[in-house]
Specification:
alpha+beta; 218 residues; 6 strands; 4-stranded antiparallel β-sheet; two-stranded antiparallel ribbon; elongated
Length: 218
C-alpha cells in the first residue's frame, strides 16, 4: 500500500527538525580542532622561519661590515714588509705581522681586535653593530653575534685573504641568554668544538675577500 504523500513529507520534516546527532557534532568538533592545530603549527613555523631569515640577514650585514673594514685597511698597506701593518694603523691586518713575507701563513681564527673606542677586543655585537654591554650609563640591545676572522698570506708581501665568520646560537640549543655585564663572551661557551664551530648549537655564515697591497705610496 502506498504511503500518502503528505505523510511522507511530514516524516521528513520531523526528521530534519531534530537537528544534528551527537556523533555529527563530535565529528565537527574534531575537524575544527584538527584544522586549528594545523594553522597554529603553520603560524609557529612561519614565525621561526622569519626570525631565522632576519638573523641571517643581520649576520651577513655584520660580516660584510668587517670585510669592508679589511678592504679599507688594505689601502693603508703600501710598503713591503710589516711596517704598515700596525695595530694603530690596520687593527685587523696587524695580526699577520712579520708573517706577511711568508707564503701560506695564517693567523688562525681570532676574535675582533679593539678598534678605537667603538669596539673592544672580542666584543660581541648586536644586529646594529653595537657592543654589549655599552658604555656606562647607556642601554643597548643584547649582543647575539660573535665575529671571528683570520688572515692568510696568498702571495708574500702582495696578496692577503681575509675570512670572516659570524656565529650565533640556534633557538634549538636551549641556552639561556646571559644577563650580567660579564656573562657574555665571544666566542661563548658552547659555540666552538676546538677551533671549529659547534654546528649543533650555532648557526654560522662565513665570508671572504682578497686584499691586495696598495702600491700607491702615501
Amino acid at each position: 500500500m502506498t504511503e500518502p504523500r503528505d505523510l511522507r513529507t511530514s516524516r521528513r520534516t520531523r526528521a530534519a527538525g531534530r537537528g544534528f546527532t551527537l556523533i555529527e557534532i563530535l565529528m565537527s568538533i574534531v575537524i575544527f580542532v584538527t584544522a586549528g592545530l594545523g594553522l597554529l603549527a603553520f603560524q609557529e613555523a612561519l614565525m621561526r622561519s622569519n626570525s631565522s631569515a632576519n638573523d641571517v640577514t643581520a649576520a651577513t650585514y655584520i660580516g660584510e661590515f668587517w670585510l669592508e673594514r679589511g678592504r679599507l685597511e688594505s689601502l693603508l698597506w703600501n710598503h713591503i714588509g710589516a711596517g704598515d701593518l700596525t695595530v694603530a694603523r690596520t687593527p685587523l691586518l696587524a695580526a699577520v705581522g712579520a708573517n706577511v713575507s711568508v707564503p701560506n701563513s695564517s693567523t688562525g681564527w681570532l676574535v675582533l681586535p679593539a678598534v678605537g673606542t667603538t669596539f673592544g677586543v672580542g666584543a660581541p655585537l648586536n644586529r646594529y653593530l653595537e657592543t654589549w654591554p655599552g658604555p656606562p650609563g647607556t642601554a643597548r640591545d643584547y649582543a647575539e653575534f660573535c665575529v671571528q676572522y683570520q688572515v692568510t698570506v696568498l702571495m708574500a708581501n702582495e696578496i692577503l685573504r681575509l675570512e670572516v665568520r659570524v656565529l650565533w646560537f640556534k633557538q634549538s640549543a636551549g641556552l639561556t641568554r646571559p644577563t650580567g655585564s660579564a656573562a657574555w663572551t665571544c666566542p661563548a661557551v658552547g659555540m666552538l668544538t676546538g677551533a671549529n664551530p659547534n654546528l649543533q648549537n650555532v648557526n654560522m655564515i662565513q665570508l671572504a675577500s682578497t686584499l691586495w697591497r696598495n702600491q700607491v705610496g702615501r
